[in-house]
Design a protein that fits this description.
This protein is of the alpha/beta class and about 160 residues long. The chain has one domain: Rossmann fold (3-Layer(aba) Sandwich). Helix content is about 45%, strand content about 15%. A 4-stranded parallel β-sheet has the order 2-1-3-4, with helices on both faces. Helix 1 packs across helix 6. The longest helix is centred in the last third of the chain and has 23 residues. Bound molecules: 4-nitrophenyl phosphate. 4-nitrophenyl phosphate binds next to loops.
Length: about 160
Amino acid sequence: MVKVLFVCLGNICRSPMAEAVFRHKVKEAGLEDKISIDSAGIGHWHVGKPPHEGTRRILTENNIDYAGITARQISSEDLEEFDYIIAMDEENVRHLKKLALEEHHSKIVRLLELLPGSDILNVPDPYYTGNFEHVYELINNSCEHLLRHIQQREQL
Ligand code: 4NP
C-alpha cells in the first residue's frame, strides 16, 4: 500500500479538500486497494471537526464525497508512516521538516510543485481569502498530476 498524507494548517479547508478530491481520482482509476489517503493539520484547533463549510460546498457542487473526513493534528509518527507527505504551503513544509527526521525530509513536497508551469507554489488559504473556487481548481489540477507521478514512481 502506498500511503499519501495531505497537510495544511487547520485541516479543515485545503488538506481535507485535497484528500476528498484525490480519493475520488484514485477510486476512478481503480487504485483504492493500492493507495491509501489521509490528511492532517499542523494546528490542533479544529480536531474532530468536519471540513469548513466552504470546502463542503465546493465538494458537493463537484459531486465529491467527503463523508467521514474529520480534522486531526499531525504527529511525528505520520512522518515515518506515510510515503508521500503533500503540504499546501511553505510554512507547512517548515513545520513538517522540524517534526521529521532528516531521512524523511525527501517525502515532503508542496502540492503545487507537481503542477507543471504553475506560477504559484503555495495553495492560498481560503480560510482567510474566502476563495474556495480557486483553491478547488488548483487542487483538482495538481491531484491529477500527483496521481500520475505516484503511478509512475510506484509502477501502478
Ligand atoms: P486550512 O485553513 O489550513 O486550509 O485548513 C485554516 C483553517 C483554520 C485556521 C487557519 C487556516 N485557523 O487558524 O483556525
